[in-house]
Structures are given as structure tokens and as C-alpha cells.
Amino acid sequence: MKILLVSANRERSPYPVFPIGLSYLAGPLQAAGHELAVLDLCFEPEPETALHEKLCDFAPTLVVISLRNIDNVTWPNSRSYLEGVKAVVDGCREHALVVVGGSGFSLMPVETLAYLDADYGVVGEGEELLPRLVEFIERGEQPAGLPGLLSRGSDAFLPPLPVERIGTPERTLFDVSRYQSDGGMANVQTKRGCPFACVYCTYPLLEGRRMRLRPVAEIIAEIRMLVDEQAVTYIYFVDDIFNYPPEFAESLCQALIAEKLRVNWTAFINPAFISPQLLDAMLAAGCDAIEYGTESGSPSMLKNLGKSFTVDDLRLASQLCRERNLDFAHYILFGGPGETRDTVLESFSLMDELQPTAVIAMTGIRIFPGTALYRTALEEKIVDAGTNMLEPVFYISPHVREFLAELVIEQAVSRRNWVVPGLEVNISDAMLDAMRMFQVKGPLWKLIKRMGRSRVRPM
């Protein structure tokens, strides 16, 4: 069967992100003997024209559309992507059957499929499910009994099954070099599943709580292919948490050291599971920056957000980086349950003490069904059972709702190392374009040291 894979993601702030989810589907479909073509809309100046031309030239029987996110999860400058994706679906349905999947789709699959009006939806991981769906379509049969499959006009589906053996993404159909030039790095996944219980997080919903680790040898082979065949020099490990389990992270680092691959990288780190030994192994393996999913500098807020670490863990983790002159950033989420003026100021005070290269702060927390935060929002009547959650809805503690933006701007603009995307403190689309002129490899926040005084764009 001729199958067209479409990446619908057009968001390029702060980086264009390679469609790794779609590339994981390409290998199994090729192995099953199907003819594939790819259309990546991220860099298309006229996406509707590009889509029409590809549909006419390739003439697929089936179109698979990957939806990475449904909105930019940024308050107050939130924007939904669904209208653009629906235009893609509408354009495809005149030519072929349409399947929609991806992490964004899987968060609210029934509602999203109804809105997009596609023929089928793949909930969760699709590497095993999608080839089975194609078999039914080739036989002219209605698919039935496939876990994770949602059909048009129905709101019933069996829970998806996790992929037990995570393979290697097939990237040869994609323009990896464009993501290297515009985004500065390639993405690699080493595991799936998250056993932690952050109240807002969707990773356990999408990947399950049981961790599934890829064989280290396969990860190394993937990285070597990226370096040797795609000229990749920088990698972002997209795992929810790179350093858990710590033993797995260290074994991967030791393998990277042994291979002597000329590549640098960064990753998200849990500060409770970093040690001098592991950090030294990471540095020797090419790590040149790390990001901590900190979320708050207030002990009470860390508890309220369901974090697995303490303020003392944050102090130790930051100290380890400073001692090694390693660039590091803390990510902060303001406005969660129980947030007050005092807890906001605690976060600013702790960041002053920890002296990270950068602090990336978000105001308000996007509410997704199935999370503990959603249940809290129901209890507090911020949302109800009839609320359209496809539209961006944010949790902001009632104690700070009226003044959170003004308080964060006031505090952040006086600190050079703070970036607040939603409030445009030290960041804007124009600034991002200018920073990319440096051709920096890795996260753009590393350039914060080159910036002058802080600035904010008037709201």
C-alpha cells in the first residue's frame, strides 16, 4: 500500500523539533512492504499547496498524520494548533483514508478525532498497531478488536498496549539536516515510561508508568548513524528523565565514552538521582549542558506538585554543576495548587542562591484530563465535566491569579538569567531568530551569558 506520512507540527519556537514519533512508524511500515512518502509541514511556507501537490503526485491510499501537540501550553499567549491540523485532515480526506495519532492526539483521542473528523485514530504507541490496521484496510475489512484503535463516529476503544521492544527510528525519509541547521540538534529516545507522579504530567498517561529501556548497543548504533551519515554534532535526549534509572544512564555514558563519538548532548535531569560519579561520566561522554525539571524553589510547592526531590537535592545538584563549570538550567512552573506570593518569591530566592546559567519559567499550568491536576481543577470548579479541554485551559492558584503575571515580570526582569516565554521576558520570536544567527548547537539558553540587560516586551 502507498502510505503518506504527514508531520503536522509547524511550531518552531524555541526550536523546530524533528518528528521522531513519525519516524518510529516508518520502519515497521517499510518492513511490512509498504511504499512510503513523507511530508513534513514544519518548514513549508504554503502547507496547503505542499499537501495538495504531494497527494496528487504520490496518490496514497492511506495518509497518517502525526499530531505532536494540540497547543503551545503557554499562558497567557496560548495558541491552539487544531484548526491547522483540521485543514490538513480535510485536504487529505478527498484523496485517501486518514489516520491521526501522536502524543497530542492521544491526550484526548475521542474529542480530537471528533473535531478533526479523520477516519481512524491511533491512541498511544503506534509501531505495532498501525501495520495491523493497514492489514485490515488492505483486506477491505472493518478493523475490530485492536487495542488503541479509535474509529470515526465512535467513542469506544480498547486501552492501548505498550510496545515491549522499542526499535530504532527510521530517519532516511526525513530532512534531518534542516533540523540540524535550524534547530541545532537531533533528538534521541533511550526509554519510555515514567514511574513518577507529578500532578500535571502527561508522560505516564502516554507511555505508562512502567519503564521500558532500549538496549544500549542499539542506542549507540543510532547515534553513530546520526554522526556518520547525517553529520549530527549535537543530540538532545528526549526522555522525560535521562538519569533514571541511574545505572542505565551510567551504562549508556560509559558506552558513549568507549565509542569515542564526536557528539555533544544535553538532557532533562532529575536532581534527586544525580551523583558526582554519574555527572562525571556524563561530562566524559559529551554532555555540555543539563536541564533540571525543578518546577519550584518552595518546599511546600514541590510537595504540592508531586515532585520526587527536595530543595536540598536542588542545592546539591546545582553545586555539582557549578563545581564542574557545566551550563545548567532550572525549569520553573508558577501558579500550581497552593501557590502564593510568598512561594513565588521563594523560587526566585532559591534560584538566586543556585546561580544557574538560565531559569526558564512558565506561568500557569495547562490542565489535561487524566492528571491529578485535572481532578484538583474539578474539585475547585475551575473546570467541569462539560468543559472543552481541547481549548487551552490553565490552572492558576486562586491566591495569585490576579497578579501572577505582574509579579513574575517584576522579579524576572531584574535578573539577567531568567527567561519567561509566556510573558516575553528575555525572549520573543525576533530574539530567537537573532540567537539562531550564532549557529549555536544545543539549547539556546546557553547564550544567556552573552546577553546584556534583561528586557520585557510590553503585554
Keywords:
459 residues, alpha/beta, Rossmann fold, Transcription Regulator spoIIAA, 2 domains, seven-stranded parallel sheet, six-stranded mixed sheet, 17 strands, globular
CATH architecture of the largest domain: 2-Layer Sandwich
| Number of separate domains | 2
Tell me the span between the first and last alpha carbons: 51 Å
Percentage of residues in DSSP E strands: 15-25%
Uncertain residue ranges: none
What does this structure look like?
The protein is α/β, with parallel strands linked by helices and 459 residues long. The protein folds into two domains: 2-151, Response regulator (Rossmann fold, 3-Layer(aba) Sandwich); 251-259 and 266-450, Transcription Regulator spoIIAA (2-Layer Sandwich). Helices cover 37% and strands 16% of the residues. It has 17 helices and 17 strands. The chain has helices at 20-31, 47-58, 82-93, 103-107, 109-116, 129-138, 176-183, 203-207, 216-230, 246-259, 276-284, 299-304, 311-323, 341-354, 372-379, 404-412, 429-436, and strands spanning 2-7, 35-40, 62-66, 97-101, 120-122, 149-151, 186-188, 191-192, 212-213, 234-237, 264-269, 287-295, 327-334, 358-363, 365-366, 394-395, 418-419. A seven-stranded parallel sheet has the order 7-10-11-12-13-14-17. Helix 10 links the parallel strand 10 and strand 11. Helix 2 (47-58) packs parallel to helix 3 (82-93). The longest helix has 15 residues, at 216-230. The mean pLDDT is 94.
